[in-house]
Amino acid sequence: MNTVPNESSPATPPLITFLTTWRADPVAIVAIVAAGGLYATGAWRLARRGIRWPVARTLAFFVLGLGSYAVVQFGFLGVHSGELRWAFSTRMALLLFAVPGLMSLGKPVALARLVLSGAPLRVMDAVLASWPVRLAGNAVFAPVFAFAAFCVFLTPLAGSLRESPAAGGILTLVVPIVGLLMVLPIVEHTTQRTSFFITVEFLLVFVELVMDAIPGILLRLNDSVLDRVGPVLGAVPGWFPNALHDQHLSGDLLWFIAEIADVPVLILLFIRWSRVDRHEAKALDELSDEEMAALTREHLRNRPQ
Questions:
Q1: Pick the residue with more confidence: 114 or 296?
Q2: What number of CA atoms fall less than 13 Å from residue 170's CA on the CB side?
Q3: What distance in Å separates the CA atoms of residue 66 and residue 47, rounded to the nearest whole number?
């Protein structure tokens, strides 16, 4: 039954409605076909060379990575993203954090490095070593970008983006790409870090735990509709929330997802720190007594007075 939303109406859809609401998204279909085709071609080329690419990584990329992308885009969140604030903000947060993290389990960069050779490989390495990619993969960038992106939900720009089909199509592609640029350097070890730098990254991720929560908390506590978009016109389902409660739900979910998303990053940073620490310890152990003495003298010579 379609009604006008009111305070007594349920604020969330029935589970069966959430699970059975689907709609095709042409932009997402093109992205899935392109990404899946490239990955499948890479695995096939390796198989022709007699190199076995792990099945678990392939399943992770297609089922978890592209599968989660399809669920977000084709399911309830994608269908109602233009009408519901909480569906839009949840969709953006999942595209930025969850989908790239799951796609990275398939190790697409490692696959490309095995498949490519010559000029294509040099181009890919040059792109990965470029300053925009290194900036996006820096632990300083992730909390600042996520905080800035989530702060958009506190402005009227969020309403304009939510209601614009063109902006929706662009965000469908751009947000996961930015998320991949942030997570791939950590998962694939495309950049070299010292143990000191990774320690700094740990501290920054803890700062991010606090920063990412701020936009969600402000959305939850504010008693005015911040995106300046009025109520949805016409008949809507009985569970449809009013504008203010929709904003509060958006804040709750944004806060929850932002905090949960930092946990895997902390785990990955810990794994990378232990690997780098073992590598540095092994390098020191392999130095001769003369080399160690020379290194110590050089350190004492450069120590600030």
A1: 114
A2: 7
A3: 22
